[in-house]
Every structure is written in C-alpha cells, then in structure tokens.
Specification:
The chain has about 150 residues and is α/β, with parallel strands linked by helices. About 40% of the residues lie in helices and about 25% in strands. It is built from six helices and seven strands, in the order βββααββαβααβα. Helix 3 packs across helix 4.
Length: about 150
Amino acid sequence: MPFAKRKTWFLVTDGAKARLYESQGPRTDFSLKNEWLEKEARTPSRELDSERPVRGRTIGTGAPYAVDVPSSHEKAKAHFLSARAEDINAGHEDAKFDQLVIAAAPSALGILRKKLSTDVITKLIAILDKDLTNFSDQDLHSYFIERLERW
C-alpha cells in the first residue's frame, strides 16, 4: 500500500508581498496557490504620514522627549501579515495542508509567529529567516530542494 502524500504549503513573504505555494514533495509540482500585494506597505512612510512625530520638553528639567508612534507603513505591514496568518490558520482548520514552510524577512517572521495558532506552529517543518519574495517560482523550488531534506 503506497503512503499518502502530504501536502506542504510554502509561505514566502516580506510584509508587503506574499506568495503561497503548494507541493506534495520535491519531485512533484510546486504550484502557486495565491499571491497578495499590499500597496500601502510598499509606499514609503514619508508619503503616508503627514504629521511629524510628537516632541516636547518635560516640565521641570526641560529635557527633550519624543513619542515613538508606529508609522502608517509599519501598521500596514502588520495588518498585511496578520491577514496572511489568518489565511494560514483558516487553511489549517479546513485541513488543506499537512506541513508548512515559512520563508520571510526577519521582521515579518516576528509578527507571523505571534499571529499563527499553536496548531499551525506544530505543522511547521522549516522557518527560513530570509526575504525570498523576489525569487522566481523555479528558483524558489530549487532553493527549497537544497535547504530541506524532505517534505
């Protein structure tokens, strides 16, 4: 009796662009399931934010201070990554994949890890902290074959 093939999802993201691939092994098709692009997360902060950061002086000593508020760019990136985590969580609930590989920029990985459910995290077989969003589909497949022993 042959073994059942496991579906593996590959999420490649950088916080403004994401691609989701599906494969059933290194020698099978590596097909693009979905692609997302967030225009606001790609737009520079200087074009999104019209207000300057809040600054002032403390009463008494007169020491300067600044309030560190996340930029619109950072908010758009966090919202985009939260939506991708929700997509992955929903895919897990619908049993659409058996294993998961995430390749993301380090800043994006931190946000994704917080948003993924614990059940999805148990399905992770690899986390690559590298931005691979500009790789072609063929180059990505080759890259994953080199880096992963099996899937």
